[in-house]
Design a protein that fits this description.
single chain, 865 residues, alpha+beta, 8-stranded antiparallel β-barrel
Length: 865
C-alpha cells in the first residue's frame, strides 16, 4: 500500500514491503490475561511532536497518542504501541514506522516517515470508527532507531468496535464481496515477508509464492470494505500505480483485523488490532476496480490527501507529480483545480510548477466542513487528480486575512475578513521581499536545508520582529519586476535571482521558495506585505507579451493568494495613462479577482504629484444662512483627479505624494486612501524636513486618509520620521478610529444660520476672555472680534462621542458640542514628542473654545468614553 506526499518527501509504502525478515513470534490460541502488557522489543530514541490537534509522545518503549479537544470532540489519550519498521521510500524518508493507538471503541493506525534530521516528519493517520484517513505534518523533535526484533503481541481486552461505516468508494470485484460485506472462509497468516515479488519492487506481480508454514489461521471472517485508495506513478517505490481496498474483518470471537488488498498483487496485509501484530497473507486473487472514481473515498493519485484536516485560513499544499518529460514545465503545463466546499460553491484555482517534476496547488480554506477537489491539466499525470479534506478550527484563533472593512459603514477603513478593525501602520520599502543586497556570497541554499539560515534572512527576521514591536503591520512596494527596464535582473534573495538568464519564462524556484519564507515570516509577525508587478513606465508592456505577463501573474496568484497579503499591482508614474495601458492594467485586476478566493485588497500606486490641486465645489448655502468666511467656490472646470479611483476593480486608493486637496474628492469614492511619502521628499533629520513630513502626515490622516513613510529596510529604527509615524499610530489606537469621519463644516460653521453663527461668536469671545483673565496665552484679537484660526485646522469626529482636531500652527478652535452632553475627556497630544497632556474635563452641551498650548502644531482630543 503506497501513498505519496511529494513536496514534503513523504510516502506511505506498500504494506507488503514494510516487513523485514525478522520473524513474528508464533501466536498460540491463548492470550495474556486482561490488563497484562508484554514488554516491547528494546529500542532507543524518542518522539515529541505536534500536529494540532494531535500530539505523539514516545519514550522508546512506550508512549501516548493525544487528540486534543476541538470542535465537539473531547480530549482523548490513547496508549501508543509500536508495530514495526521498514525502509522508507526512495528519496523520501529513511524509516517508515508503524504504530497503533487504541481505546475500547476505536483505534488509530499511524505511519510515520522518519529520518536522521530529528526535527519534523510526515504521518498518515487512519481513525476508526470515523473511517478518516488524514495526512499530517508533525513538528517537534525525535530520534529513531528501529528495534532488532518485531515486538511481541500487546493484547488489549475490552475492545468492542461499532459496526463499520458505509463504504463510499469505487465499485470493485473480489470473490463474493459487495459494497456492504463479504466473507473469507479461511485466511492463513504468515511471518513477513512472503517470498516472491511484492508491491514496491520493479518485478512484475505474480500470485506464485513458495510454500511457507502459516503462524496463524483465521476462519469464518466477516469483512466490511472501508475505503479505496488510488496510487499514482510517483510513489517512491516503483514505476506504475495501483489501487488498494482497505477493509475491517471480524472473526467468530469478534476480534477485529485491518485488511489491505491490491489491484496488482494477490499478496496483502492483515493487522491484528487486538494483539497489535501485522501479518502478510495471500488473498488468492487481485481486486478489480471499476473505472469510476469516487471523490469522497479517494486519496489523490500523487499525494494521497484523502480526508485531510486543514486548519481554517492556513495555507495547505496539495502536491502532484508527473513523469512526463517537458522542456520547460513552467510554460508548457497548465494546471487548475476546482474546490467545492460545504456550501456547495466551487472555487477555481491555478496550480503552479514547484520544481523538477513537482507541481503544487496551494489553498487556504475559509469554511469549516468537508471539501473535495479535482484537477484539470494538459499533462495526463496531473489531469483528473482527486482528493478531499476537512477544514477545522482547532482553538478559535485561526488567522483572519487583512481586508477592506466588511461593514459598509466603515468602508473607508481596513479590517479583517472576520470584521475586526485594523489600524494600518505601513512602511514603504520596495525591497523587503527581494533585493540584490541580500544575495548571499555562497551558492543559494534551500529554506528546508538543515544548515543554519543565511545571515541575511536572520537579519530580516530580526528587523520584522523589531518593526512588529513598534506596531508596523504593513509593508508596501513588493514589486517583482522592478521599476525600470533592468529591474528584473536585480531582483534577488537568498535563493538567487528571481529569473534565470533574466527571462520571464524561466522563474527560479529557489528564489520563490525563499520569497515564500519571507512572506511566512511577515505573517508570523502580523505584518501584511504587498505583492505586484512593477511600473508600466519601465516598459514592461513593451518588453513582455500579455501571454508572458498573464502566465507569470497566474503563477504569483497560485503561489501567494493563500497567504495574508495585499495586491499592489502596478505603479502609475505616467499621468494620465493612455487608454490601452489602463485597459491592460484593468485586465490584470480582473484576473486577480477571478483567481484569488480570499479577495485580498487590491490597489495600484498613483503618482498624485502629477495632478493639480483639486477645488471641491462649495455646498449650496441654506436659506437664511450666510457662507463661511473661508469658503472658496470651485471654478466651473474643476481640476482633473487621478485616473483610477472610480474603477470598480480598485479596492483602495494609493497615492504617491500629491496635493492633499485631492483627498476630499477621493474620500467621496467610499474607499480607503493610503498616501505614500514622495521618494523625493528630504528624508534627512533636519527640522524643516521633519516638520513638512509631520504636517503632511497629520493632514492626510485628519482628511480621512492613511499615511505610509518611505523607509527602506536599511533605515535605522531610530529614524525620527519612523518615530513620528509610531506616535501617530499610538494616538489613534486610543480612539475608535473606524468611527471617525472628516467633518470640516464643524470648524467653519458653513451650515450655520445667522443666529447660530452669532451664538458661536459670543461663546468664542467669552471663552477667550476667560482664558485671558486666567493668564493663559491666547491668539491676538482685532476690533473686539476673534480672528480666524492662525493656521489650517482639520477635524475627524464621531459627533456626540469623539473628536480629533489638528491645529497646524497652534491657535484656537471653537466646537459645537451640543450633542456631546456631560463631562468630556480633554487631551492635548504633542505630535513632535508623542506625549499626551491631560486637561481637566470640559462640560458639553454647547460651544467650547480650545486654545493650543503654543504656536506649533497640536492635536486636540475630546471623548465621552
Amino acid at each position: 500500500m503506497i501513498w505519496s506526499y511529494g513536496r514534503a518527501g513523504i510516502a506511505l509504502a506498500a504494506l507488503l514491503t514494510m516487513l523485514t525478515a525478522h520473524p513474528l513470534r508464533a501466536q498460540t490460541g491463548t492470550s495474556p490475561s486482561a490488563g497484562t502488557q508484554p514488554k516491547q522489543a528494546a529500542m532507543t530514541g524518542y518522539i515529541a511532536a505536534d500536529s494540532p490537534p494531535y500530539r505523539i509522545e514516545w519514550t522508546g518503549t512506550g508512549g501516548t497518542f493525544v487528540q486534543h479537544a476541538y470542535a465537539k470532540e473531547p480530549e482523548k489519550h490513547f496508549p501508543l504501541t509500536y508495530l514495526h519498521t521498514q525502509a522508507g521510500p526512495t528519496g523520501y524518508s529513511k524509516h517508515l514506522a508503524w504504530y497503533l493507538a487504541r481505546d475500547s471503541d476505536g483505534f488509530n493506525l499511524l505511519w510515520l516517515y522518519l529520518d536522521d534530521s530529528g526535527t519534523d516528519f510526515g504521518c498518515w493517520l487512519y481513525q476508526y470508527p470515523s473511517n478518516r484517513l488524514t495526512y499530517l505534518k508533525f513538528q517537534g523533535k525525535y530520534r529513531f532507531n528501529p528495534p532488532a526484533a518485531i515486538p511481541a503481541a500487546n493484547f488489549m481486552d475490552g475492545l468492542s468496535l461499532r459496526h463499520p461505516p458505509r463504504y463510499t468508494g469505487t465499485d470493485f470485484t473480489f470473490r463474493d464481496w459487495t459494497r456492504e460485506s463479504g466473507t473469507l472462509p479461511r485466511l492463513e497468516l504468515f511471518s513477513p515477508p512472503l517470498e516472491g515479488p511484492i508491491v514496491g519492487t520493479s518485478a512484475p506481480p505474480s500470485p506464485t509464492v513458495k510454500p511457507q508454514t502459516p503462524v496463524r489461521t483465521l476462519t469464518s471472517l466477516q469483512v466490511s470494505p472501508l475505503h479505496q485508495i488510488q496510487v499514482g506513478d510517483a510513489n517512491g517505490w516503483r514505476t506504475g500505480g495501483w489501487r488498494e481496498l482497505h477493509c475491517l474483518a471480524f472473526d467468530p470471537a469478534d476480534d477485529p483485523y485491518y485488511l489491505i488488498l491490491y489491484s496488482n498483487e494477490t499478496s496483502g496485509f492483515v493487522v491484528d488490532i487486538r494483539r497489535a501484530q501485522t501479518y502478510t497473507v495471500n488473498f488468492g486473487e487481485k481486486v478489480k476496480f471499476s473505472e469510476g472514481v469516487s471523490v469522497s473515498a479517494v486519496v489523490d493519485h500523487n499525494e494521497g490527501q484523502g480526508e485531510l484536516r486543514v486548519r481554517r485560513s492556513e495555507p495547505h499544499d496539495f502536491n502532484l507529480r508527473s513523469v512526463q518529460k517537458h522542456v520547460n514545465p513552467y510554460t508548457e503545463v497548465v494546471l487548475t483545480a476546482e474546490f467545492q466546499g460545504p456550501n456547495g460553491k466551487k472555487i477555481f484555482l491555478p496550480g503552479y510548477w514547484e520544481n523538477g517534476n513537482s507541481w503544487n496547488i496551494r489553498f487556504a480554506p475559509q469554511l469549516i466542513g468537508d471539501w473535495t477537489w479535482v484537477t484539470r491539466s494538459n499533462d495526463p499525470d496531473l489531469n483528473g487528480q482527486l482528493g478531499s479534506f476537512e477544514c477545522i478550527a482547532v482553538d478559535g484563533n485561526e488567522p483572519s486575512f487583512f481586508s477592506i472593512h466588511p461593514e459598509r459603514a466603515y468602508r473607508h477603513h481596513f479590517g479583517t475578513t472576520e470584521g475586526k478593525q485594523v489600524l494600518p501602520f505601513a512602511l514603504r520599502d520596495p525591497a523587503f521581499l527581494t533585493d540584490s543586497a541580500v544575495v548571499p556570497t555562497p551558492a543559494p541554499t534551500s529554506p528546508d536545508a538543515a544548515a543554519p539560515l543565511p545571515a541575511t534572512f536572520t537579519a530580516f527576521q530580526k528587523r520584522l520582529e523589531a518593526l512588529s514591536g513598534m506596531g508596523v503591520n504593513r509593508l508596501i512596494g513588493g514589486y517583482l519586476l522592478g521599476n525600470d527596464a533592468a529591474g528584473m535582473a536585480r531582483q534577488a534573495n537568498e535563493g538567487g535571482t528571481a529569473f534565470l538568464d533574466s527571462s520571464l519564462d524561466r522563474p527560479n524556484p529557489e528564489f520563490f521558495r525563499w520569497m515564500d519564507q519571507r512572506i511566512v515570516a511577515c505573517n508570523a509577525h502580523d505584518i501584511v506585505p504587498d505583492i505586484g508587478f512593477g511600473w508600466p513606465s519601465s516598459g514592461m508592456f513593451q518588453k513582455y507579451s500579455d501571454v508572458q505577463l498573464r502566465r507569470f501573474w497566474l503563477y504569483i496568484l497560485a503561489r501567494y493568494a493563500s497567504y495574508d497579503i495585499s495586491w499592489n499591482l502596478f505603479g502609475d508614474e505616467a499621468a494620465p495613462l493612455d487608454e490601452e495601458t489602463e485597459n491592460r492594467i484593468a485586465s490584470f485586476a480582473e484576473l486577480t479577482h477571478l483567481y484569488d478566493p480570499n479577495h485580498h485588497p487590491l490597489t495600484v500606486m498613483m503618482k498624485g504629484a502629477e495632478y493639480p490641486p483639486l477645488r471641491v465645489p462649495t455646498p449650496p448655502v441654506k436659506a437664511g444662512s450666510r457662507p463661511a468666511a473661508d469658503a472658496v467656490a470651485a471654478p466651473p472646470d474643476a481640476a482633473p483627479v487621478p485616473v483610477f479611483p472610480h474603477r470598480p476593480w480598485l479596492d483602495y486608493v494609493t497615492l504617491v505624494g500629491g496635493n492633499a486637496n485631492a483627498l476630499d474628492y477621493l474620500y467621496s469614492q467610499n474607499r480607503p486612501i493610503v498616501v505614500l511619502a514622495r521618494s523625493g521628499l528630504p528624508m534627512k533629520e533636519e527640522k524643516v524636513s521633519l516638520d513638512i513630513t509631520r504636517r503632511w502626515m497629520w493632514e492626510t490622516r485628519l482628511r480621512g486618509g492613511y499615511w505610509s513613510g518611505n523607509l527602506p529596510v536599511t533605515t535605522p529604527l531610530s529614524n525620527l520620521e519612523l518615530k513620528m509615524e509610531t506616535d501617530c499610530a499610538k494616538f489613534f489606537r486610543q480612539t475608535r478610529w473606524w468611527r471617525l469621519e472628516p467633518h470640516p463644516e464643524m470648524l467653519t460653521g458653513k451650515e450655520e444660520t445667522p443666529a447660530e453663527h452669532r451664538r458661536r461668536r459670543k461663546a468664542e469671545e467669552d471663552n477667550i476672555k476667560a482664558a485671558e483673565e486666567a493668564g493663559m496665552p491666547v491668539p491676538p484679537t482685532s476690533a473686539g472680534e476673534t480672528k480666524s484660526l492662525k493656521g489650517p485646522s482639520f477635524l475627524l469626529a464621531d459627533p456626540g462621542h469623539e473628536y480629533v482636531v489638528y491645529l497646524e500652527k497652534g491657535g484656537y478652535v471653537t466646537l459645537d458640542l451640543l450633542e456631546a452632553t456631560g463631562h468630556i475627556r480633554f487631551t492635548w497630544f504633542n505630535p513632535r514628542t508623542g506625549e499626551f497632556q491631560e486637561q481637566p474635563p470640559v462640560l458639553g452641551g454647547g460651544y467650547s473654545t480650545f486654545i493650543a498650548p503654543d504656536k506649533e502644531d497640536w492635536i486636540l482630543y475630546l471623548s465621552r468614553r
